[in-house]
Fold this sequence. Notes:
This protein is an all-beta fold. It has strands at about 1-5, 15-20, 25-30, 35, 50-55, 55-60, 65, 70-75, 80, 85-90, 95-100, 105-110, 115-120, 130-135, 135-140, 145-150, 155, 160-165, 170-175, 185-190, 195-200, 210, 235, 240-245, 245-250.
Amino acid sequence: xxxxxxxxxxxxxxxxxxxxxxxxxxxxxxxxxxxxxxxxxxxxxxxxxxxxxxxxxxxxxxxxxxxxxxxxxxxxxxxxxxxxxxxxxxxxxxxxxxxxxxxxxxxxxxxxxxxxxxxxxxxxxxxxxxxxxxxxxxxxxxxxxxxxxxxxxxxxxxxxxxxxxxxxxxxxxxxxxxxxxxxxxxxxxxxxxxxxxxxxxxxxxxxxxxxxxxxxxxxxxxxxxxxxxxxxxxxxxxxxxxxxxxxxxxxx
Length: 252
């Protein structure tokens, strides 16, 4: 199976969505490919490879390639948004589950792109309601890109995240919300998980393994929790997360 969505013009605008499901299940088999904004010299930003909302599920065993600034490879959200920006909740369960399977590969080359994004926009009081797991490979090459982003979700890297950004790349990022609307995430790098970081070209905008906001405050994890470090750099800023695997920083 091959799905390709390409903008046919050179104007700036919101990009495309490869697959979308509301309350259902998307299964992408091994050998299948989804290409979004990848076929011309200009890629519209904010595109999504696979998009799931309202108690839906994504099981990706294929290859997802998405271009454009701020684009997302796989996006799982608790509630659908109406044209006025209001959430529309599911009548049944609220959790959306996202899995990049062992044969799944996500390739993102845009600036500020996200490999997997798990968002709880249903109720901050019931965090985390969405789950995301990477059993495959996520490759990020644009500056300020994120392998996995969680907003009120439970996300774990079980295999490999490659951050090849020149600067500002993050393996796993968890947001904290605001004082008025706080939320929590359960994030981690499992015992078999590896986050590979390219050495940043900027000392002021380093590549980071795991980063978590605490109402705009960060706590540094002691370096003895890191099993292996190949080059000194900011490896992780994390709170209420789990690190059992490896975060490796390599010279560019």
